[in-house]
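thread from #wetlab-drylab

HS: before we spend reagent money on co-crystallization trials with coproporphyrinogen III, can we at least see a predicted complex? here's what I'd submit
DV: go for it
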Amino acid sequence: MTRPKNDTLLRALLRQPVEYTPVWLMRQAGRYLPEYNQTRARAGNFLALCKNPAFATEVTLQPLERFPLDAAILFSDILTIPDAMGLGLYFSDGEGPKFERPLREERDILALAVPDPAVHLRYVMDAVTQIRQALDNRVPLIGFSGSPFTLACYMVEGCGGTDFRQIKTLLYRRPDLLHRILDVNARAVTAYLNAQIASGAQVVMIFDTWGGVLSHAAYREFSLHYISQILAGLERERGKERIPSVVFTKGGGLWLEHIADSGCDAVGLDWTVDIGEARRRAGGKVALQGNLDPAVLFSTPEVIVAEVKRILAAYGDGSGHVFNLGHGISQFTPPEHARILVESVHDLSRKRQEH
Ligand code: CP3
């Protein structure tokens, strides 16, 4: 595997020396970019965009044409796995994801099977291959998946934006059935991420968007346990290059020490924690990714620069920090504010190193 010309992200994730703090943005290809909306209109809808490797490649590269980002992230969605399991994913306009056949009956749960990524998720692997070709080793490509628990939330609830009543009822009434779903999901995610790595992904990230809604005890049993299982099953090297892994549990600040022990190379942070304190708590075991509140991008250039400065200072000197937002960029973000963010992370972190 050839190393990217700009490999700053890979070095930061492995806590090797860097000249500046690398930055990318969760959901960096998305509706805040007019060119994304145009491509999506040409594709017909969001799922058609994900399922067409040429369109997925085009939108993956769009934010890189605009801003000096240090990584590309595969354009896809975490819900491709339950879709490949036959649950019937669809997006109704402005309402987020839904499933035609959510998992409610015991017999459906027992019938759940691991999809073969080379067959049922072929379009994702084709997108990874095409994006790597189009990137021509400019920056590394991040592959990703949802966590087993976060996927289960959508599979059981049948949609987003819920109060988690269905999944929590299952958790407390029939933990055996939830464990069965999580075990299938963990095996599916492991195979899926390994297939992305084999197709050319140079970093993998696990999005545990809903782990933070669990109780202290339930988080470890129903979310982190399965994340660790995936990490233990990943191909950690391709050629001679290590493939770093990132675990992001939104609302996971209280469990940082445990997440840092899961076997990942880096932990993603939302904006509710102080990144300097997180660094001390993680005890030098992992790199950290984050953690600007995405709402800062609704403010002014002066405020954006000040908040970037604050986070860089809180992290302190030395490698091991990947700058990012604490969650996905909002569709209402002015694109010029994303530029100010990316450029100020580069400028201010270089200046800090010169002192
Ligand atoms: O970061 C990137 O640029 C890569 C692309 C990416 C998307 N979804 C594209 C997308 C990634 C990494 C995801 C992950 C994802 N998808 C997560 C985990 C991260 C997070 O945000 O918490 C989750 C929970 C999903 C499920 C999902 N997909 C939801 C809840 C929604 C609707 C919310 C919304 O923003 O409308 C989606 C749709 C989606 N996925 C969009 C994009 C660009 C917007 C769809 C559109 O263009 O209409």
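DV: The mean pLDDT is 97.
HS: ok that's useful, forwarding to the group
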